[in-house]
Design goal:
By secondary structure, the chain is mainly α. The protein has one helix at 7-95. The longest helix has 89 residues, at 7-95. The termini are far apart. The mean pLDDT is 91.
Length: 99
């Protein structure tokens, strides 16, 4: 099936499109510098991600190794904090016995 497009149909479509194009052109001109800035920022972000990836790969095994130690340390630190508070309370009671 052959598509038949008549000249007057094309002209009608172009006449309809022209005002829209005129309206879009200033917006496109305004958007272009913003798009350039966004592209520059994306390039910087990509460069930073490329630098970060090896560091993250290096850190992951260390984090896996540290996690069990951290899990063991948390209760000890909580206990130590409780003992320090109790010690301070006892010290305050010794220093100020009458309140």
């Amino acid at each position: 099936m052959k598509l038949k497009i008549r000249t007057h149909q094309v002209l009608t479509l172009l006449k309809e499109a022209l005002p829209l194009l005129k309206e879009a052109l200033p917006l496109l001109k305004e958007a272009l510098p913003l798009l350039k800035k966004a592209l520059a920022l994306l390039k910087k972000a990509l460069a930073l991600l490329k630098k970060a990836l090896p560091l993250l790969k290096e850190a992951l095994p260390l984090m896996k190794e540290a996690l069990p130690l951290h899990m063991k340390a948390v209760p000890l630190v909580k206990t130590l904090a409780l003992l320090v508070r109790m010690g301070l309370l006892v010290l305050l009671l010794i220093v100020f016995p009458n309140g």
